[in-house]
UniProtKB/TrEMBL annotation:
Transmembrane helix among keywords: yes
Positions of transmembrane segments: 40-59
Subunit structure of this chain's protein: Component of the cytochrome c oxidase (complex IV, CIV), a multisubunit enzyme composed of 14 subunits. The complex is composed of a catalytic core of 3 subunits MT-CO1, MT-CO2 and MT-CO3, encoded in the mitochondrial DNA, and 11 supernumerary subunits COX4I1 (or COX4I2), COX5A, COX5B, COX6A2 (or COX6A1), COX6B1 (or COX6B2), COX6C, COX7A1 (or COX7A2), COX7B, COX7C, COX8B and NDUFA4, which are encoded in the nuclear genome.
Membrane topology: Single-pass membrane protein
GO biological process: mitochondrial electron transport, cytochrome c to oxygen
Locations listed in the record: Mitochondrion inner membrane
Associated pathway: Energy metabolism; oxidative phosphorylation
SUPFAM superfamilies, A to Z: Mitochondrial cytochrome c oxidase subunit VIIIb (aka IX) (SSF81431)
Protein name: Cytochrome c oxidase subunit 8
Organism: Leptonychotes weddellii
């Protein structure tokens, strides 16, 4: 590595050390209303239908995908 490249990298890293870092102001509060059993059931069912059902179908038909027709 040449001397000018080393000086350039040193200058860039020195610049980033002096920049202020903004931090997110995240504060958690308790929920306004509790989740009901039906809400949880609908959420879990939709996750099952959207993610697990298609992947299960692909895995169950994997042998037919391997065949050359």
């Amino acid at each position: 590595m040449s001397l000018s490249t080393a000086q350039l990298l040193r200058g860039l890293t020195g610049l980033t050390r002096r920049l202020p870092v903004q931090r997110a102001q995240i504060h958690s509060k308790p929920p306004r209303e509790e989740l009901r059993t039906m809400d949880v059931a609908v959420g879990l069912t939709s996750c099952f239908l959207c993610f697990l059902l298609p992947s299960g179908w692909v895995l169950s038909h994997l042998e037919s995908y391997k065949k050359w027709e």
